Each structure stands twice: as C-alpha cells, then as structure tokens.
C-alpha cells in the first residue's frame, strides 16, 4: 500500500488523490460519503478531490443520488498518464529556452601527448582552412594530420623554420627574438579562423600550449602570419635591396625595437 501511494505521488498526484484512487480501486465504486468515512477524512476535502480527479479523466461518475465514483482500469489509467507525460516532455523539449554552454575563453594544455592529441582532434575536424606556423621538428610530427586535411580539400597555409623540405613548398620566414621566452620552439596553429593553439616545445622546456576560440587571439595570430607572408614576398622580390638598406633579415630595424624592449624587461 505505502509503495503504491509513493509511486502515485511521484506521478504527480497529491497524497489525498492517491489515497482516494486506491480506495476506489479497492471498492469498485463508492459515494463521496463512503470514501470519506472509509479514509476517516472530511467530506468536503473528499468531494473537492473527487471532482478534480473526474475533471482530469481519472474517475467515472455514475448518475443518481448519491453519485457513485469508480476508477479507470489500471491499464487505462497508466496509458493516459503515459500519453500526458510524453506530450508534456515533448513540449518542454521543444519550448525550453536554450543557451550555448559557456566554453572556457582560454585553457592550458601541458605535455606532448595532450598537446598533440588536441591538435590531431582539431585538424581532423577542420573544414576550410588551417594556418600553421611551426619549426621543422613539429612539422614532422604534424605531417600526416596536415596531409590528411589537405587531401579532404582543406586549404593549408603554413611556414616552417629550421629547414626546407619537410612539407611541400615551405616558407622559411624570419623569427624575431623574444627576451626571456626560454629556449623552446614556439608554434601556433589556427583552424577555420575559429580555434587556435599557441605553445612552446623543446628538449630543455616542458611542452605547454594555450588553446582558445577567442576571436582576438585568432585574429592576432592570423595577422602575424599574414605579415610574415608579406615580408617573405618582399624578400623574394627585393631581397638584395632590402638587405643592403636594412641588414640581413631586417636586423637593423629589429634592433631598434627589440633591444629597447629587452632592456626595459631587464630593469
């Protein structure tokens, strides 16, 4: 009895409704007076509950004086409840307001395994474009993932420092020194102009990277990459003239800014 009442309450019936339904199911049919007497509760509460259950379709009321109430068959009642529940659940699923789950703006990834698993997953999901700025060692590790993406029709833009020939037509572009940045090799990738990773890897430093979909960071990396391509094109067209005027790899220009920046950091 207690278990049955417990489950009826879980289906949304009040304690009084549950007791009346069980009592009517046991007796077959009864008047409001008879139900109230059997349960030992006030007739006004019983009559109000009987009317409510009848309006909801769970009870039948026979004409006459006094009116007699009876329960639906158990299978009819449960089918009715099931239909109502499915209707309500479907409506809630369709109509409940939805918001995009918040993603961390930036998160850190540490260790070779975690970094390259993150990279492989994103490269495999790339649909339009991959921009890669890496050293020779990292280019070799990413070779198969990049080739698979390119074979799917994904546009591949990349530069490689430390040696030509690791991939087709590498762009060995100038790298400016960054004071206090350690001895690791810096790398960055941007996938579909949406997701990016910026990190460092080397024999003397742990592999670490920052991952984000923040548009400011992806924009900065794309802008930096575009500037490197422009400088590379200028070197190809005006290499000797640029070198004679500004020094190899623009060393004279870089010295103006990076030397003062370095000395400020050291103070």
UniProtKB/TrEMBL annotation:
Keywords: Coiled coil
Domain Transcription regulator TrmB N-terminal: 8-75
One Pfam family, short name: TrmB
Alphabetical list of InterPro entries matching this protein: TrmB-like, Tscrpt_reg_TrmB_N, WH-like_DNA-bd_sf, WH_DNA-bd_sf
Coiled coil: 109-152
Ranges that cross the membrane: none
Superkingdom field: Bacteria
Protein name: Transcription regulator TrmB N-terminal domain-containing protein
Native species: Paenibacillus silvae
